[in-house]
Write a structure and sequence with these properties.
With 264 residues, the chain is an alpha/beta fold. It has a 5-stranded mixed sheet. The protein contains 7 helices and 14 strands. The longest helix is centred in the last third of the chain and has 22 residues. Helix 4 packs antiparallel against helix 5. The chain folds into 2 domains: 121 residues, ATPase, nucleotide binding domain (Nucleotidyltransferase, domain 5, 2-Layer Sandwich), CATH 3.30.420.40; 115 residues, Nucleotidyltransferase, domain 5, CATH 3.30.420.
């Protein structure tokens, strides 16, 4: 698969704990920068601008760049390019990141949710390649998801389809609250890991029963956990539970791939 021309695309993955930005062409990362997520809006603007300028320089100048694809956590107005709310990074609430990037760098800007970017990257170039119906799950600072059915990304009526972390599974608790957050609080103890595996397995079982995917692709910092419950689900439900193949680059590659396909 190739992008629409031979110029580089800047793919940016803005996550809860870090920003990964890369020069990408044909799903290959030619140069990458990773920085901790800034602590305030001013710092975010300054560091993001510096990172993008470095990527432009490494590409050989502005004419070597096709555009910027950006994956962002939180709720988005995709048409306007606004970060509506983000519980982990609330200093960016209300920011029109699309307009800001356009004004600063004068490129075409495309944005999407970071978990959908992960799912898109893995679908096109990673563990999801060859399937038509997959669900991507990101287990990091929060729990996110992306849904591809019949080869098309599902956005829903308000652009918020795939919010797996908001699934209620345990006495009113969200999946996100009952898994990753609790595991961090307990410092990854054995008991916390067992609870994590169980809650994650329950969440996956619900996803399988509702969406009937061919495969579920798991990525993010906590993706190393593959408990017995998940293995059981894989055999019982005849669905593949796979770890992502693109590693920490998946989100940036999936953001760049916004320039590859309108459906995905």
């Amino acid at each position: 698969m190739t992008f629409i021309n031979k110029k580089y695309i800047i793919g940016i993955d803005v996550g809860g704990s870090k920003i990964i930005a890369a020069l990408i062409k044909d799903a290959r990362v030619f140069y990458k920068i990773k920085i901790p997520m800034p602590k305030n809006k001013k710092d975010f603007f300054g560091k993001s601008e510096k990172v993008i300028e470095e990527l432009i320089e490494k590409a050989g100048g502005k004419k070597s760049i096709r555009g910027i694809g950006c994956g962002i956590g939180g709720a988005l107005d995709l048409e306007k390019g606004i970060i509506l709310s983000w519980s982990n990074i609330n200093f960016l609430d209300g920011l029109n990141i699309k307009n800001w990037l356009k004004k600063k760098f004068n490129y075409e800007i495309r944005i999407d949710n970071d978990a959908r970017c992960f799912t898109r990257g893995e679908y096109l170039f990673g563990a999801g390649k060859g399937y038509k119906n997959i669900v991507g799950m990101t287990l990091g600072t929060g729990v996110g998801g992306g849904i591809i059915i019949d080869g098309k990304m599902v956005y829903g009526a308000n652009g918020s389809a795939g919010e797996i972390g908001h699934m209620i599974i345990n006495n009113g608790k969200y999946l996100e609250e009952a898994t990753v957050k609790q595991m961090r609080k307990s410092k990854f103890s054995k008991i916390a890991a067992q609870k994590f595996e169980k809650n994650l397995g329950i969440g996956i079982a619900n996803i399988i029963n509702i969406l009937d995917p061919e495969a579920i692709i798991i990525g993010g910092g906590a993706a190393k956990t593959t408990g017995k419950f998940i293995v059981f689900l894989q055999a019982e439900k005849n669905v593949k539970i796979l770890k992502g193949k693109l590693g920490e680059n998946a989100g940036a590659i999936g953001a760049a791939a916004l320039f590859y396909s309108q459906n995905i």
